[in-house]
Backbone:
């Protein structure tokens, strides 16, 4: 196996492993429990879940896989802090979004060829990319895995 | 730049970025504040810090960079949960260990050639590695970056 192939496999394995770990913790928490703050005065579990769907929704755009599927989640879960937006979707619906989104991303990633991962993502110009070849699609997976792990460390506080 | 080189750079950039982010939060917290629990009944900040030094100490062994420098941290910060070990090093000393450890790892990583990252780490046998070439040194960095992000999400709760 070529080193590039090995590196891409490791990065995607870490993404998938991080999703699985998040799911393990998410599935252990009831809808009611997710309405609690992870610590006094901090974000609620539901905010972390909505935030994750909103951030991963943007991966579609960055990887040129289509339009956002949940643009309405930007305001309550990305632009605004928790408890700012009065009306947010119920936990059960966010769980459904999350599950479908994970399956969709998994399907799309499965169609990508090795070199596709080293193409520029959509938030960088061709000129910038010529000098900064690391601003590619694979790097989106690397940074979003970090982001997911960061919030997984918070979600577990509800257990 | 070759794709393998790009992939290794992205992974090391994410490691370094994660260290910098942890340090930003760590440096914003006083020694006294680090003695507090991140939430009622949860780990204290000092435990997270000691845990991080203990886990990164093991990177030396896994990457064949030498012996552990702080084997005494295994029991209080890895084997045992927080508040089990009566005597732990003061926060100021753990900060010093951490800073020196980061500098040492950075220096060692700087000496590694591209292909060194794809050599097997020390916890896998040559036979296993022949079939599982992803169990290499670079994968240690990938998984430890995840681990660091997970606990960074917890450390910030003290702010």
Residues:
């Amino acid at each position: 196996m070529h080193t590039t192939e090995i590196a891409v496999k490791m990065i995607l394995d870490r993404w998938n492993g991080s999703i699985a770990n998040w799911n393990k913790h998410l599935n252990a928490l009831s809808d009611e429990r997710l309405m609690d703050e992870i610590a006094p005065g901090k974000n609620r579990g539901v905010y972390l879940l909505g935030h994750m769907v909103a951030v991963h929704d943007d991966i579609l755009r960055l990887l040129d896989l289509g339009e956002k599927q949940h643009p309405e989640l930007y305001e309550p879960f990305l632009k605004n802090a928790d408890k700012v937006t009065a009306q947010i979707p119920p936990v059960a619906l966010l769980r459904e979004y999350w599950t479908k989104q994970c399956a969709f991303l998994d399907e799309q990633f499965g169609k990508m060829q090795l070199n596709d991962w080293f193409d520029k993502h959509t938030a960088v110009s061709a000129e910038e990319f010529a000098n900064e070849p690391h601003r590619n699609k694979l790097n989106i997976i690397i940074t979003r895995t970090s982001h997911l792990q960061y919030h997984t460390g918070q979600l577990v506080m509800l257990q």
Observations:
- The radius of gyration of chain A is 17 Å.
- The first helix of chain A runs from residue 3 to 27.
